Amino acid sequence: MASDLHTHTSFSDGRLSPEELVAAAKEAKLSYIAITDHDTVDGIRHLYEQGLYPSKTLHIIPGIEFSCEVDEHDVHVLGYDFDIYNQDLVDKVTEISESRWARFSTMMEKLQELGYAITESDVLQIAGTSTSVGRAHVARALVKKGLASSIREAFDKLLEHGQPAYVPHYRISPEEAVALVRGAGGVPVLAHPKLVKDDTIVARMLELDFGGLEVYYPKHDAEDTARYKAMAEQRGLRLTGGSDFHAIPQREPSELGVFTVADELAEPFFHPPQAL
Ligand SMILES: [Zn+2]
Ligand SMILES: [Zn+2]
Question: What is the C-alpha separation between 120 and 113, in angstroms, rounded?
Answer without folding.
Answer: 14
